[in-house]
Amino acid sequence: MKMVKSLILGSAAALVAVGGAQAADLPVKAKAVEYVKVCSLYGPGFYYIPGTDTCIKLGGYLRAEIAVNTNSVYTGNTSGPGGANNRFTNGYTWRSREDLNIDTRTATEYGVVRTFFDATFTWTTDNYGVNGAAPGATVYAPLGGGGTVAPASAPNNAGAGNGSYGTVGVYYAFIQFAGFTMGKAVSQFSAPWTNYPGNIYDGLVGGGGTVTGVNQFTYTAEFGNGVSLSVSAQDQAAYYQAGVNNLSAGGAYGLSDYAGTISPDFVGMLRVDQAWGLFQASVAAHDNHAAYYGGTELTGHPDDKWGWAGQLALSIKNIPTGPGDTINVQGVYTDGATRYNIQDLAGGAGANTIYSGTGVPGLYQSVGFGFAPDTVFVAGGQQQTIKTWGFRGGYTHNWNAYWNTAIYGAYAQIMYNDTSKTLLCGVGGVGGTVRTTFASAAGTGLTSCNPDYNIAQIGVITRWTPVKNLTFSADFVYTHLDQKYAGVVSAPSGSIGKPAALYEVKDQETYQLLLRAQRNW
């Protein structure tokens, strides 16, 4: 009996153990999987970030391009090794770039909160290393990093000198909320097409730019029917300082003599955006804040000088020449705010020195000059503003769904006042910083000393889009420098292969061709 009882209890314990083990193996109900959902509130390409009410869109492009007869991609041979027109001038410059942008939007009781970020990863090849860097060296630097580049032919946005290099650039990084834009975005002064009324060439004069964004704090009021008004404070240091040139510091045009930052630029913009096109009026105030006449505080300094700029822009869509055809035009006037006309990517950006041949016996070559700071001054004097005006425009015609062509052009005129011309050229053509720097041998010299100059540009581009978001383009542009000096100058030796010799001063010209393949996604 005792044995039977033990058998029963043992069997029961075994059944309980087996049942417990089987229960442990039973499937547990899983949490629901959160699939990515389409967000249709803000247009195609947006998705909800799982677990949130925020929509996100990823985008960008991959671009491969080659620029012919230029040392940059793609601003023109108007200065430095490009303007030398010698063995330092590139026959081509090659570049590959990946752009990545991230757009997020969240609906709130105050309206949509938006963040936008755009960065580029770029590899540019030049012809050889400089400053001790080996060809093929890689450097990661902010866009527009600068650095000493002569005598080598340095591409646009070079970081530390090198022949082939990579850069990481932050184009845009801003927050929009309740009408405010805070961060790095295109200037409110610029037209919606920035530097591109019909082209892909970066270096047009005749209007505001900041293609890669400028730090700003902006409020935009929407009035309905496409009418809006924006007021903005934006950083001037990165892209809007053309120079406050101290002529007493040496050289023909002196040296730029900026003090620390003291005031942002202030911008106002009124826009009317309709089905027929767009009209925009922009104004800007720009403070020129110079440092000292000499090396210490005891030497004194000039007073601040406020400059200003005004611009009108017009876009006409769907004109009778064909579906999607467009005309974009704009005109600008500046006084002590040169960068709102000669924008930061415009070739030498207001510092043009172009060489070519000459037919005058006994002279080495010819050279053309064109410099456009915001102001000039001498020790003990006040700042004298430089005035400019200009325009740019483009007409785009669609031949069919796959091909289109645009013709475009730009023009700018730079004007010095009488006081500035006296400081540069002297009284009655005697003395002055330009004449002193370019003093020539007996019997030669400048027969006309006038720092005013004009720049004219004209170009044509054709694009082929065989499939959606894949475009091949060819853009050719011609630039003419119409400078007002005449005669012969004794130019000092430079770091771009030019000897100290006598040069004829005359107008100059240059041209470039850009071939590009781009896939947007």
TrEMBL record:
User: Could you name the Gene Ontology cellular component terms for this entry?
Assistant: cell outer membrane; pore complex
Q: Where in the cell is it found?
A: Cell outer membrane
Which GO terms are recorded in the biological process aspect for this UniProt protein? Answer: monoatomic ion transport
- Would you indicate the residue range of the signal peptide? 1-23
Sorted alphabetically, which InterPro entries does this protein's record hold?
A: Porin_alphabac (IPR003684)
UniProt topology in membrane = Multi-pass membrane protein
Q: Name one Pfam family in it.
A: Porin_2
Q: Where the protein is mainly located, per its record?
A: membrane
- Identify a single GO molecular function assigned to this protein: porin activity
Q: Which UniProt keywords apply?
A: Cell outer membrane, Ion transport, Membrane, Porin, Signal, Transmembrane, Transmembrane beta strand, Transport
User: What does the similarity note say?
Assistant: Belongs to the alphaproteobacteria porin family.
Q: What does this protein do?
A: Forms passive diffusion pores that allow small molecular weight hydrophilic materials across the outer membrane.
Written domain comment of the UniProt record: Consists of 16-stranded beta-barrel sheets, with large surface-exposed loops, that form a transmembrane pore at the center of each barrel. The pore is partially ocluded by a peptide loop that folds into the pore lumen.
Q: Mind telling me what this protein is named?
A: Porin
**Which organism encodes this protein?**
Bradyrhizobium ivorense
Gene this chain is encoded by: omp2b_4
